[in-house]
Amino acid sequence: MYTGETGIYIAILSGIVVLLALMGFFIVTIIRYQKKKVAFHLQKVKEEFINLDKERERIAIDLHDDLGASLSAIKLRLQCMENMDVANIEIIEQAERQIDRAMQRLRQISFNMMPGVLQRRGLNEALKELIELMTHNTGIIVHYKCNIDSFDKGKALHIYRIAQEILNNMVKHSAATTVNFTIVKVKNTIELKISDNGTGFNIEVVSNNRQGSGLRNIDSRAHLLNAKIFLVTSPGKGVNYLVEIPV
Q: Strand (E) positions, 29-176?
């Protein structure tokens, strides 16, 4: 091989090596950027949920302490009224019944905003109370089973919100009469399974309209838990959720 040709080959090889090095550099840079972008997005979503949960807790406390106390004071004043005829007594009794209904509804709203039992007694008891409230209000029969004694407090609220969102969607849209709900630990994974015998839905259609916001909330909370969601449903076939949460 001539010296000139050797120089050309060396130059070409050197150019290829430099090009490959530049491509490798750009690929690594892009990967790093994507990782930083994902981490930044996760942190932003986490902060948004933290702020949202704090705001919910504040509103729940305000509803319970301020509005609840005001309704109780009004009822007490009504009960202290004297020297009334039969017509006025009937009006007072009707007002008291309305106040009782308002206070009951207030407790439900406050519980949905931030269940105090979750903080006091843990996730299992909070879910039991949520299911009891759901059954009382809708008549839907829920078969609930949980074999886990304790949950990480940092994950408990997200797991509760995921379950709450799923159950709320079932109440609003599924026309279900029975729900099966289990939380079990399989090796190093918590499996949350919720299924119903309702009407089901078209995932693609729901994801593209306003109802899809509930699914997006579930996905966002699951993402923060590094959880995987498996959803099986179709019109007339009910809904089956499986959420796998690493311990």
A: 141-146
pLDDT at 66: 65
- Which segments of 128-223 are extended strands (E)? 141-146, 178-186, 189-196
The helix (run of H) or strand (run of E) holding residue 26 is: helix 3-62
Neighbour count for residue 28 (Cβ, 10 Å): 10
Q: State how far the Cα of 65 lies from the Cα of 63, in Å rounded to an integer.
A: 6
Angle CA 48–194–231, to nearest 5: 70
pLDDT in tens, 32-77: 656 665 555 556 656 666 666 666 666 666 665 666 667 677 777 7
Do 134 and 142 touch, CB atoms closer than 8 A? yes
C-alpha to C-alpha distance for 232 and 168, rounded to whole angstroms: 17
Q: Please state which CATH number belongs to domain 122-247.
A: 3.30.565.10
Token pair listed for 47: 């902060």
Q: Can you give the residue ranges of every domain in the chain?
A: 1-114, 122-247
The Cα–Cα gap between 25 and 188 comes to: 37
Between vectors from CA 49 to CA 225 and to CA 102, what angle results, nearest 5°? 120
Single-letter code of the amino acid located at 139: G
For residue 53, what are the contacts with CB-CB under 8 A and spacing of at least 6?
114, 157
In the sheet that holds 178-186, the strands lie side by side as: 141-146, 178-186, 189-196, 239-246, 228-233
Nearest to 242 by CA among 231, 225, 160, 171: 231
